[in-house]
Design goal:
- The structure holds two protein chains of two kinds.
- By secondary structure, chain A is mostly helical.
- Helices cover 73% and strands 0% of the residues of chain A.
- Chain A starts with a helix and ends in a 5-residue tail after the last helix.
- Chain B is elongated, with a radius of gyration of 23 Å.
- The chains are: A mainly alpha, B mainly alpha.
Chain lengths: 192, 85
C-alpha cells in the first residue's frame, strides 16, 4: 500500500470524528489553551500510531485517548492530582436544591426554553481544569467512571466528586445566564 | 423480598449516579419506584438529564470544522509525505 493510499484510508475513517474530537478538545481546554492545536496534534499522533489501532475497537474513543495525551503533552498538565474531599452525594443533593430554587424563581422554566449550547461553551471555559477534564471524559467523551479514573490516575470516588461538582458549577452558571436573559426580556433591549 | 424505599433526600443524593447508569440494580429500582410517585424528584432528574445532554452536544460551528479539517488534512499530508515510510 502506498503512503498516499494509507493516508486516504486513515482520513476516511478518522476524519469523520473531527467534530467529536474538536468538541472534546474544546471541553478540556481552558483560557490560554488552543484546542485546535490539540486537535491537529491528535490527528498527527494518531497517524504516527496508526499501527496500534485495532479496527474492531471504537475509533472515536481511541482518538479521545490520543487527544487527552496530546493535551497533556502540549500543556504539561499533570494527570495525577490530589483528591478533593467533597462527598459526591452532597454535590448531587446540592444540584437538586439549586434546581428547586430555580423552579421557584422561574429561571428553570426560562432555561428550558433556551438554546444552551453557547452558554455551555462559555461556562465550560470558566471551570477549573480538574472539573473540566472529568466532564470532558465522561459527558463529552462517553467514558464511564472507571475509565475516567484510569485515564486520570485518580480513584473513582474522586471522579464522581469532581464530575458532580463540575456539573453543579455549570448548572449555577446556566441558571445565572437564564436569570440575566429573563431580566433583559422583562426590561427590554435598551437595558442590555 | 421487600423493596427498599427511598426518601426525597436519598433519591437526589443518588441522582447523578442514576443519570449516569452507575447505580447497582437494587438501588436503581428503588430510585425509579420513588420517581414514580414524586413529581419534585422527577423534575430534578429531568433537569439533570437535560444538563448532561446539552454538555455532550455543545455545538461546534460548522465553519470551524471546515477550517480545521483543511488544517488537519494539510498537516497529515505534510507528515505523511515528509516522513520515511
Amino acid at each position: 500500500m502506498t503512503t498516499a493510499t494509507a493516508l486516504a484510508d486513515f482520513e476516511s475513517v478518522m476524519l469523520r470524528y473531527l467534530p467529536d474530537v474538536t468538541r472534546y478538545a474544546r471541553s478540556m481546554a481552558g483560557p490560554g489553551a488552543d484546542a485546535d492545536d490539540v486537535v491537529q496534534d491528535t490527528y498527527l499522533d494518531a497517524w504516527r500510531g496508526r499501527a496500534t489501532f485495532d479496527p474492531t475497537r471504537d475509533a472515536r474513543k481511541w482518538l479521545f485517548a490520543i487527544c487527552r495525551h496530546a493535551f497533556i503533552k502540549r500543556y504539561r498538565k499533570s494527570t495525577r492530582e490530589t483528591a478533593v474531599g467533597d462527598p459526591a452525594e452532597l454535590e448531587s443533593h446540592a444540584t437538586a436544591v439549586g434546581h428547586a430554587a430555580a423552579v421557584r424563581d422561574g429561571s428553570a422554566a426560562l432555561l428550558d426554553s433556551m438554546d444552551l449550547g453557547p452558554a455551555i461553551n462559555t461556562a465550560m471555559a470558566t471551570l477549573p481544569g480538574t472539573f473540566r477534564e472529568v466532564i470532558a471524559l465522561v459527558d463529552v467523551g462517553g467514558s464511564d467512571y472507571a475509565e475516567a479514573a484510569e485515564a486520570l490516575g485518580i480513584p473513582v470516588g474522586t471522579v464522581r466528586s469532581r464530575l458532580f461538582r463540575g456539573r453543579r458549577l455549570l448548572q449555577e452558571q446556566l441558571l445565572d445566564y437564564a436569570r440575566d436573559a429573563g431580566f433583559r426580556m422583562r426590561t427590554g433591549p435598551e437595558a442590555s | 423480598m421487600s423493596e427498599t424505599t427511598l426518601s426525597c433526600s436519598e433519591t437526589v443524593r443518588a441522582m447523578w449516579d442514576y443519570v449516569d447508569h452507575a447505580l447497582p440494580s437494587g438501588l436503581r429500582s428503588a430510585v425509579e419506584a420513588h420517581l414514580k410517585g414524586c413529581d419534585d424528584c422527577t423534575g430534578h432528574v429531568a433537569f439533570a438529564r437535560r444538563l448532561v445532554e446539552n454538555i455532550a452536544r455543545a455545538p461546534v460551528p460548522k465553519s470551524d470544522i471546515e477550517v480545521l479539517e483543511l488544517r488537519v488534512r494539510g498537516a497529515l499530508a505534510h507528515e505523511a509525505l515528509s516522513a520515511p515510510s
